[in-house]
Recover the amino acids of this structure.
C-alpha cells in the first residue's frame, strides 16, 4: 500500500495553535453557562426567595422604606408649602428694604448737588 504525499499546511495557519487558542475559550464559555444554569436553579428555590427577601430588607433599611406613609408625605408637603410662603415673604421684605435704601441714596445725592 502506497501513501500519497502529505499536503502542505496552509500558510500562516497552524492547526495546533488554533486548537490551543480555541479550547480555553470554549471551556470558559461552558463553565460560565453551567454556573449560570446552577445559579438560576438555586435562585428559583425557597433558598433563593430567602436571599431575595434579605436583600430587599437590607435595601429598605439602608435607603428608607419602599412604601411611603401617606400621612408623613402629606405633613412634609404642608411643611414645604409653609417654608415656600416664608421664603416669598422674606424676598418681598428684601425688595422693600432695597427700594428704601435706593431712595435714601438718591435723596443724599440730590441734596449734595
Amino acid at each position: 500500500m502506497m501513501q500519497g504525499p502529505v499536503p502542505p499546511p496552509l500558510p500562516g495557519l497552524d492547526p495546533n495553535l488554533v486548537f490551543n487558542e480555541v479550547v480555553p475559550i470554549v471551556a470558559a464559555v461552558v463553565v460560565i453557562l453551567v454556573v449560570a444554569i446552577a445559579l438560576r436553579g438555586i435562585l428559583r428555590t425557597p433558598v433563593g426567595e430567602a436571599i431575595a427577601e434579605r436583600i430587599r430588607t437590607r435595601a429598605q433599611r439602608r435607603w428608607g422604606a419602599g412604601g411611603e406613609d401617606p400621612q408623613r408625605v402629606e405633613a412634609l408637603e404642608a411643611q414645604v408649602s409653609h417654608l415656600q410662603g416664608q421664603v416669598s415673604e422674606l424676598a418681598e421684605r428684601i425688595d422693600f428694604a432695597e427700594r428704601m435704601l435706593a431712595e435714601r441714596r438718591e435723596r443724599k445725592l440730590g441734596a449734595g448737588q
